[in-house]
Amino acid sequence: MSKYKSEPWLQKELLRHIQLLLYSFNHWTGKHLIANHQSPITNSPLETAILLFHADSVVVSHGLQTDPILNYGNQKALDLWKMDWQTFTATPSRYTAEPMERNEREQLLAQAKSQGYISNYRGIRIASTGDRFYIDKAIIWNVVDIEGKLWGQAATFRDWEMIL
């Protein structure tokens, strides 16, 4: 089995996407997405991808489709939503929220799109198994390149709590 089948998040196009995640997070917030990671230049794109995939915080992103599809989730995200990589990256991002929470989620994404990012979001999300959880202190941001072209949106958070 090739490395890309066992670790699909190391594919060349995803290495570029990960660089965009880091660049745009820093662009909007002035902070670094990976703790103690000052610049994508200090690590190779491959090393950066490994660091982000195994980071302590959840990191997810989706593209620009009419019904955006998730295009990245690190290990914390895969564990929390209880999906493997292939399932996660084929899922419309709206399915990360319950139907009654989707309108609020859409409003937040629109707000982030117009402002560049929002922080301190708290909301309810749902795993593929139906398990529900609160996310807290989430940051949602536009994924942009150095020219300002929009590539999608992403979110990160460290704090979540299962709802029993």
Q: Let me know the CATH homologous superfamily.
A: PAS domain
CATH architecture: 2-Layer Sandwich
Q: Can you tell me the CATH topology? A: Beta-Lactamase
Q: What value does the Rg take, in angstroms? A: 15 Å
Question: Major sheet: size, sense and barrel closure?
Answer: 6 strands, antiparallel
Please tally the helical runs, counting DSSP H or I stretches of 4 or more residues.
Answer: 6
The low-confidence runs, each spanning 5 or more residues with pLDDT under 50, are none
Judged by helices, strands and strand pairing, the structural class is alpha+beta
Task: Work out the strand percent.
Answer: 25-35%
On the 0 to 100 scale, the average pLDDT is 89
Tally of DSSP β-strands: 6
The percentage helix is 25-40%
End-to-end separation in angstroms reads 39 Å
Order of helices and strands: HHHEEHHHEEEE
Shape: globular
Number of domains: 1
Output the CATH class name: Alpha Beta
Can you describe this structure in just a few lines?
The chain has 6 helices and 6 strands; from the N terminus they run αααββαααββββ. By secondary structure, it is α+β, with helices and mostly antiparallel strands.
